[in-house]
Amino acid sequence: MTPSDSGVSGNVPTARTDEAIQQPKDRPGLGTSWGETKSSHITSSPFARADFSHPFAMGSLFYNNEEGAHAMANATGFAERSQGMVDLGNGIATMSLRDADSGKFLSGFEADGKQYVVGSEGQRYKIVVTSHVNSRIEIVLSVDGDDVVDGKPANFSKRGYLLDPMGEIEIDGFRQSADAVAQFTFGSVSESYAQLKHGEAATKNVGVIGIAMFNETGTNPNLWTKGEVGRRLDANPFPGQFATPPGR
């Protein structure tokens, strides 16, 4: 916003250069841009959600450059180094980001229960989701508030990708067709897909990757989480040394 000419009486007007009236500086930090086209083939499979409108688990992963990630983590409390991995549904699945060129997982920070991943401008990345249960799961993913399949504002009614039992899936871009994606690429906020596609107002959601998980009708992934498996493995076959009368 440029200042009004009707300032406080007594102020001395100054000449404004072209530079002074240019658009505001780009917001700091990273967004996700519409990257190079890459072959990526998909097919359709039937999947009936147990509850169409309500996912059984959700998660989010915040990303930024190193300076921005530190600032975000410090703003929420003490930060610890992490593997940049989000636990979903108490161990049902995990989500992380992988460098598309090196294949290495991105590291980050954990603060106040949130995960922050560090990236760099120009870096291509993949979203990796790994299942730890023996049932199929439908995952709906968003990047910067946009659905990764149709590029429109994300919501639970969108259909997503199927994750096989104990399987892993890599999502490496916004889907252009059944045979190609535009690779996820870290870039400036002004060059982010969210801003170029939907306008500056859409950048309020830049910097976060979201996931919603839906179980299939007739299945219950919550039965065998890592916590339940751990309790089974910790079961003591001889909890008492001596027999006692019934009721005692």
**Total count of strands:** 15
What is the percent of helical residues? under 10%
Residue windows where pLDDT falls under 50 for at least 5 positions: 1-24
Structural class comes to mainly beta
Shape: globular
- Assembly level: single chain
Ordered list of secondary-structure elements with their pairings:
Layout: E1 30-39, E2 57-64, H1 66-75, E3 79-82, E4 85-88, E5 93-99, E6 108-111, E7 114-118, E8 125-131, E9 137-143, E10 146-147, E11 161-163, E12 168-171, E13 173-175, E14 180-188, H2 193-198, E15 208-215, H3 226-233
Parallel strand pairs: 2-7
Antiparallel strand pairs: 1-14, 2-15, 3-6, 4-5, 5-8, 6-7, 8-12, 9-10, 9-11, 9-15, 13-14
Explain what you see:
With 248 residues, the chain is mainly beta. The chain has one domain (32-41, 51-219). Helix content is 10%, strand content 34%. Strands 2, 3, 6, 7, 9, 10, 11 and 15 form an eight-stranded mixed β-sheet that branches. The chain has a four-stranded antiparallel β-sheet with strand order 4-5-8-12, with no helix packed on it. It has a three-stranded antiparallel β-sheet with strand order 1-14-13, with no helix packed on it. Mean pLDDT is 85; it is low at 1-24.
